Amino acid sequence: MTDMTTRALQAETTLRQGELAKMKWIAAGLLCAAAVLYVLGKVFHLGYLAAFAEAAMIGALADWFAVVALFRHPLGVPIPHTAIITRNKRTIGNSLADFVVGQFLSADVIGQRLKRYDAARHLSQWLALPENRTRIASYLNHGFVYGVKALDDRRIHDFIAQTARSKLQDIDLSGFMVSGLELVTRNHSHRKILHGGLNRFADYVESPDNNETISAFIKGWSDNAFVQSMIEPFVPTIRAAVVNKLRAVSEDEANGLYREFDEQVQSYLLRLQQDPELRDWVNSQKAALLDRPEFGQQIESLWNQLRDWVVLDLSHPDSLIAGKIEHLVGELEQYLATDDALRSWINDQIQVALIQAANANKGVVGELIREEFANWDDKYMVDKLELYLGRDLQYIRINGTLVGGLFGLLIYAVTQLVTGG
User: Fold this and answer.
1) CB-based contacts of 326: which residues, under 8 Å, 6+ apart?
2) Is the pLDDT assigned to residue 52 strictly greater than 90?
3) pTM higher than the cut 0.85
4) Which of 25-29, 170-174, 373-377 has the highest mean predicted lDDT (pLDDT)?
């Protein structure tokens, strides 16, 4: 509970205590006034005044007794059937729990209430205001950053690595490779690997940065220094010829190299399908890789890179993630405003979810009310109830005084009339 809420409750309690004390003084003042009038009526032989005052005192005292008897023993005397609330605390708690559960958490009540409340439309109207969309996006951004930082913990890293290792251990890597190879060879997509490899090799041979390495490699075909000196002038021509040949072969899928590559891939695919030893070897290599300490370090490294990127991105005014989140919130508002079917679906889901939650937790709510009542100290419970109900109950005392006096006056007048007094 926040300090502001606590202060508000304390102020409300103080106000109620003042109003209750005021009403008690008014009720007691009327009783004292009735007593004074009674004395005056007797002293000056004013029968009507005395009759009114006497009945008013009786009504005031009777209603005082009734009000006090609800909460405690009048004057501390344990008169039977007093301190009613204290004696029936468990019964009151059970009845209140049954009432709340039966009247407020029933499926019919929740369903009827939600049918009258179009939650999706209200959400759409709320999101239509730019400041609300910005607020939601800001909350999501802060939540995203908090979540990423909260997960930056050694225990979480170990858990992620262990979970990844466990899940990957369950994968049949050889079977996965068979499925992958079948998929890429079905439309000759595997040839792109050879095409790309040949072109990358051509780029390497052609790059000026590799002049010394390529020249040394070509001249290294012979150990004879004289032969090497004879070859050196032809190195650029040889390099150019090799590059042209590599690029030409990469573009000619009718070339025998592509057919040989196809055969090698199909042969390996067939072995993976039919050779148990190869399949076992592939899976054993997978297991050995997962058991290496470097695996956990790689998982942690990937996570750290992701965390740093998210935090850095969200710290910028033109954050990609923040922009995407705000865009998605705006799209949600537009969909809710124009799509009746979507709003109907959201309202149906809210209704189903709340009804299910109420049905699943109504027993918990009822038990919570019963336990709370049972755990309340008698004095605490009486003070609380009197604080909230006592002001109105004091009107019973006031009405009892005035109504009692009027009835006393009426009875005295009828008596006088009948007896001719």
Assistant:
1) 133, 134, 137
2) yes
3) no
4) 25-29
What is the C-alpha radius of gyration for the chain, rounded to an integer number of angstroms? 45
Q: Do 33 and 397 contact (CB within 8 A), yes or no?
A: no
Secondary structure of 321-353 in the HEC alphabet? HHHHHHHHHHHHHHHHHHCHHHHHHHHHHHHHH
Q: How far apart are CA 322 and CA 261, in angstroms?
A: 47
pLDDT, averaged across the chain: 79
Q: What is the 3-state secondary structure (H, E, C) of 211-244?
A: HHHHHHHHHCCCCCHHHHHHHHHHHHHHHHHHHH
Choose from 139-153, 259-273, 289-303, 341-355 the range with maximum mean pLDDT: 341-355
Alpha helices by DSSP H, 232-339: 235-251, 256-274, 276-291, 293-314, 320-338
d(CA 107, CA 365): 15
Show Cβ contacts of residue 37 under 8 Å, excluding neighbours closer than 6 positions: 49, 50, 52, 53, 56
- What is the rounded distance in angstroms from the CA atom of residue 328 to the CA atom of residue 334? 10
Residues in CB range of 321: below 8 A, 6 or more apart: 141, 144, 310, 313, 314
